[in-house]
Specification:
The structure is a homodimer of 238-residue chains. With 238 residues, chain A is an alpha/beta fold. The first copy, chain A, is built from 6 helices and 6 strands. In chain A, strands 1, 2, 3, 4, 5 and 6 form a 6-stranded parallel sheet that branches. In chain A, strand 1, helix 1 and strand 2 form a beta-alpha-beta unit. Chains A and B meet through helix 4 and helix 5 of A and helix 4 and helix 5 of B.
Chain lengths: 238, 238
């Protein structure tokens, strides 16, 4: 199995880096090939713009998904996008490793999705959810929080972690056809202490060792929404 | 009243730009002062890193919120962050104008939040929600979608738009104390046609003209979660 870990943290000594390294170790010991995209180390460009494309579909009006389709069809994707898309396409398992910043991904990781999840390559017209082009791949989110576990839950201040991650789980990973595995959440990291962090690393290793037995998160199916198939409307062309 | 519109779209002729201009016009006609942060035109840097700070709290381990607090206390914020933070702090109304990309904000806008929502300036220890430092400000999200309105809803493929926007509404805007007004959503923009777009612009103008009469979205209160106040835990220090 090929695994891709996309890691987004500015501090090489961070606990996020330790979680990344634990995942590399567990997966390699299982005999898998692991690639890591360290977005900060790569100085990854997160902003979608015309520099993303060597081709040009419309010089007057910049429409992201139409430019993506033109570039995809004519080898016009910028080198960094093409390289990351290759990694994504050959991965059987995608792990997104990041700290929860403002209830979401750091901008550099959101930009990896905005730029690498190319229209026509990972989704298209009616190619979403169980028809998505990344069907058959599995995806796992591993996130750290500064807030304590009791800040998350149905009646807690921040709501449930699954609700916070729903736009990513449902709108990115399941949307493109991936099977979404339960996330691993390391809570209250800045206050966990050395023992707490060591325990979480062991817990994450066990989580990864149990992936094959893990029930994926329930996700919607396009087939249950036939009205959306008529016309084959395409998302994010605005 | 001072209004700040933060606008994030790569195409100057986009419908997002038309919505931005409609808001400027409505608010100025009401006698308000309006500032616009056009993140693409500014070539805004969305990635949090050490270049954000002229000061240094810890040269060995980069902790974003601790560096933010150090910089805030000693005039060490990078010029672009300080300038945007000034705009945010003098705004009575914040409007975020963006296309829904992958069920969320474009990376350049997420990065504006990651960098400008400085620890100690917009939130701190127990300064969240009704104790947040942006208390008294109102916030409005105006978003465009490529998907049709029937793709959104409790039983729809994409879920409800309020669920998709919850991390932003609750985790960013309400978290810092802002009153969150109902969003304006322009659906199916690429397929709306000239008449449909003109109708949405009028609809948005009416939405803005009705702001003062509009009931804000219900948000949690820190006072209802007293356990979190003990110790005054601080978010996103990981």
């Amino acid at each position: 199995m090929n695994a891709l870990i996309v890691y987004a943290h500015p501090e090489p000594q961070s606990f996020n880096a330790a979680l990344r390294d634990a995942a590399v170790d567990v997966l390699e010991k299982q005999g898998h090939a692991v690639e890591v995209s360290d977005l900060y180390a790569m100085d990854f460009k997160p902003v979608v713009d015309r520099r993303d494309f060597l081709t040009c579909h419309d010089a007057e009006h910049f429409n992201v998904s139409l430019e993506q389709r033109q570039a995809l069809a004519h080898g016009g994707l910028a080198a960094d996008i093409a390289s990351e898309l290759d990694r994504l396409q050959r991965a059987d398992l995608l792990i997104l490793q990041f700290p929860l910043w403002w209830f979401g991904m750091p901008a550099i990781l959101k930009g990896w999705i905005d730029r690498v999840f190319v229209s026509g390559a990972v989704y298209g017209r009616s190619a979403m959810f169980e028809r998505g082009k990344l069907l058959g791949k599995r995806a796992l989110v591993c996130v750290t929080t500064g807030a304590p576990v009791q800040a998350f839950g149905p009646d807690a201040l921040n709501g449930t972690i699954l609700d916070l991650l729903a736009p990513l789980h449902r709108g990115v990973l399941a949307f493109t056809g991936m099977t979404v595995l339960p996330p691993y959440v390391a809570y209250h990291v800045p206050y966990a202490g050395a023992e707490g962090r060591a325990a979480m690393l062991l817990d994450y290793r066990a989580h990864l060792q149990g992936l094959d037995a893990m029930a994926p998160l329930p996700m919607p199916r396009l087939a249950d929404h036939p009205a959306l198939l008529e016309g084959g409307k395409r998302p994010r062309a605005q």
